[in-house]
Amino acid sequence: VAGLGNYGLRGTRHSVGMAVLDRLARQLAVAEGWRADRQCCADVVLATARSLELLLLKPRRLMNLNGLSVASAAELYNLRPEDIYLVHDDLDKALGKVAIKLGGSARGHNGVRSCISALHSNEMTRLRVGIGRP
């Protein structure tokens, strides 16, 4: 599960994917386990939920380059694109509304576009979190 955003701009609506992962890590009682992984240039933590092993990942790159971290982690942990969930902001959704999208285009989102390019696939599931328009 990759929370897309701008690492240096945490706490902004544009980095809501990272905030969702912080919340998920707290709910799974692994929030104290985040560690910087230099190989994939991201903060990572392993968790278990309903017998599933999860890798939570927050790229340490700008949004436009998040895909490089996601692709590196996919290679390190032997993940296929269809195993990956991207959590990202969506300007076209009202603040706080969420939707799940299975594959498809980036719909103008640079972080998703970066992931599609780096993974050579658009098969990732996306959790789109509404941030509304200013």
UniProtKB/TrEMBL annotation:
Which Enzyme Commission number(s) are on file for it?
A: 3.1.1.29
Output one GO MF annotation. tRNA binding
Provide the alphabetized UniProt keywords: Hydrolase, RNA-binding, tRNA-binding
Which PROSITE patterns does the protein's record reference? Answer: PEPT_TRNA_HYDROL_2
Q: Which domain of life is it from?
A: Eukaryota
Q: Does the keyword Iron-sulfur apply?
A: no
Q: Name one Pfam family in it.
A: Pept_tRNA_hydro
Q: Which family does it belong to?
A: Belongs to the PTH family.
Per its record, how is this protein called by name?
peptidyl-tRNA hydrolase
Q: Which organism is it from?
A: Pygoscelis papua (Gentoo penguin)
